[in-house]
Amino acid sequence: MIHGKQYALIINLIIVIFFVILTIVINSQMIRFGLNGLGDVRWHIGWVQNFSAQLQEGILYPRWLANTNFGYGSPTFVFYPPLVYYFGSILRIVGFNSQQTMTLLFSLPILLSGISFYVYGQSKWNSISATAGALSYMLCPFIIHSVNFGNLSTLWTIPLLPLGMFFTDKCLENSKWGLLLTVFVSLIALTHTPTLLIYTIAWLLYMIYQTQEKPVIQVIITIIFAFAGLGLASFYLLPAILEQKYVNIDYQSGSMGGFSTLPWKDLFMVDGPYSIGAKNVIATISIAIISIIYTEKRKPYLKHIMGWIIFMVIVLFMVSNLSEIIWYSSHILLKVQRSGRIMGLFYFAQAVLFSWLIKSLLGLKIKQQLIPITILTTILFVNFQYGYNLTRQSPGLNAQTQGVVSSREWMEIALFEPLSEKLLDVPEFRPQIISPYEFNPDVRESTPVIDGIPTPNIIGGNPYFPVPKLNKPKMEVLQGEGDIFIENWSSYVRNFRINVNQQSRIKIRTYYYPAWTLKINDQMHDIDILEDGTIGFSLDQGIYQGTLNYNMTPAFAWGILLSILSIIFLLVLYIIFNNYDSVMFFWKTIF
């Protein structure tokens, strides 16, 4: 005989299997034919490959990718969150090849989005309502666009949103959930920084709303646990913030031609990655109207539904160009780069509406359910059809078709020759070679593939960032005379011997970053930044043994210390708040 818990377990297992099958169907184009090369996928392939290779060298946190930029290197993971690349590296280490790894990295978030929303939904409604919301979330255009256009890190934040709401609601009820909320916040921080900013603002507004329904002390406790998660991720966040002055981080907005918002008319007329399109406008309005009609006699439901409808309208306003005055009011907000990044919040709210509506319909007769269920099913089918058609517009890397895969040669280098020093990295992580005040957003770097290799092509004037050149020697004498013998050249350590006949100036084919330190004959030696952004130094006549090491910067060291202190602080918080009655007594005594 099957008991209640066993029955629930079987139902949950069946639903998860259904989500797995749906994920395979949604992303079948990529699974069958490989990546299409659109968007940023070419960068992510190289990053995963190089990150994995350096982990296998014994570097626990590969912050400097030595083989990118034609071997000049890049401090990519000082500024780009590393979590997805750790996971990709695990897939590589356990035996998946490069193409299988990338396919899994673009497929698993679809599955996890369904599962995480289902977990959140079950805690608020029931299995049927949670499943309906999860289907809406899995099939939303924001996910399919993120998959199709290579927005890997953004894609991985989508399943974290329902999970974060789940932990937040649980922590508001019981402080024992605070540890998991803290871990969640740190996961967001280590996955995608612009999304962290977006979620933090939306989450704080949600917490303000919760003060109307929850004890203020419990809201404060929840906020403390959440912000402890930022402290936990300080080993990444602190250097990513404090060391931006060493690179051309503003190129991110410059390459976009400035901060990007969507004209409000296009928001409704164009089916694009950050618009909702005409079909989705009709779908959203339909869901809202049906929700209001079928919950008008259930005021508690109606209150929640109206709240989510208002939230969706606010999100659309913030995506449109009508909100530009708000975005441009803060330099921090501009770091988001484009307002469309917040569309994930819109589709999460839409999925919540789905769940609330299904919960409302379950108490009605079958005849009353027929019309709204038909409309909701049609919306799900239209979203599925849209995603299905979109992913088939471009051929995959392994497709036997006449179509051309964008950046095929670049992708093949990243997949099969990632350590060959034939790959570029993004310009924003290269060192500054002129004053940051001379930043010109009209100067950009395009990367056509010439003779099978990505080749920098500067558009719009003289570059304010260095441009690497292919097949340059690892070290060379720029002025003077001498012989250089390279003894070891690994990602973080370069050993060499130099015999100079007169005072000489030496160049190392490595972009400058303050983490690099130079020792000559076991003594610290000054480093110069050359005109092309590489490391240079001078020597008098003689024979020298040199070592170039990539070490911790002060910001990284302080970040690690702050992360450790955050762990200790978190444990103390957990012990204190575990005795909730004592905390409430203390709060009431004071206030």
TrEMBL record:
Stored Pfam families: PTPS_related
Signal sequence bounds: none
Segments crossing the lipid bilayer: 7-26, 77-95, 102-121, 149-167, 179-209, 216-238, 274-294, 306-328, 340-358, 370-388, 555-577
Keyword Membrane attached: yes
Keywords: Membrane, Transmembrane, Transmembrane helix
Domain Membrane protein 6-pyruvoyl-tetrahydropterin synthase-related: start-end pairs: 78-325
Xref: InterPro entries: Membrane_prot_PTPS-rel_domain
Identification of the protein by name: Membrane protein 6-pyruvoyl-tetrahydropterin synthase-related domain-containing protein
Taxonomic source organism: Cyanobacterium stanieri (strain ATCC 29140 / PCC 7202)
